[in-house]
Amino acid sequence: MLFRWIANWRKAPSLGARGEAAAARFLRQLGYVIIARSDRSKLGEIDIIAVDGRTVVFVEVKTRSSSDAAHPSEAVDTHKQAKLTRLAISYLRRHNLLECKARFDVIAITWPAAAQTPTIEHFLNAFEPAGQYQMFS
């Protein structure tokens, strides 16, 4: 049991975890204040929640080792957008922030195995709220 714990403790972070950490650093450099990472609820998980000026920003991070199959941002389809909208509304309700401006950004990261640093693309206001919550501001 102890040896398994040590092996897991020493394990390198996953590509997704490294991508989310890089995205958080990137956003901080832009002046965003990170208020939550990997925020989980019974509905799912929001990668990063930040504040940009007076706007709450829900950030979906997609990291790939290459864009041969498809660009990382293409994984944020309409189904994912509707799920993120539900998660955002839930977060805003839980924290009494329903009156705040909010938006959805997507950060697409391509990080080849041999590269020291990734290519980061930031899509501001990447999509409008989807699903039954389209009146969300």
Provide an overview of this structure.
It is built from three helices and five strands; from the N terminus they run ααβββαββ. It has 137 residues and is an alpha+beta fold. Strands 1-2-3-4-5 form a five-stranded mixed β-sheet, sandwiched between helices. The longest helix has 17 residues, at 78-94. 24% of the residues are buried. This is UPF0102 protein DSM3645_06709. GO terms for molecular function: nucleic acid binding. Pfam families: UPF0102. Belongs to the UPF0102 family.
- The CATH class assignment is Alpha Beta
Gross morphology is: globular
CATH architectural name? 3-Layer(aba) Sandwich
**Count of all domains:** 1
- Low-pLDDT regions: none
Main beta sheet: 5 strands, mixed
Q: What fold name stands as the CATH topology?
A: Trna Endonuclease, Chain: A, domain 1
Which value, in Å, is the CA radius of gyration? 16 Å
Number of β-strand runs: 5
Distance between the termini: 49 Å
Relative strand content: 25-35%
Helix count from the secondary structure assignment:
3
Sheet/helix structural class: alpha+beta
Question: Average pLDDT value?
Answer: 87
Q: How are the strands of the largest sheet arranged?
A: 1-2-3-4-5
Share in helix = 25-40%
Strand/helix succession = HHEEEHEE
Organism: Blastopirellula marina DSM 3645
GO molecular function: nucleic acid binding
InterPro entries: Restrct_endonuc-II-like (IPR011335), tRNA_endonuc-like_dom_sf (IPR011856), UPF0102_YraN-like (IPR003509)
Protein name: UPF0102 protein DSM3645_06709
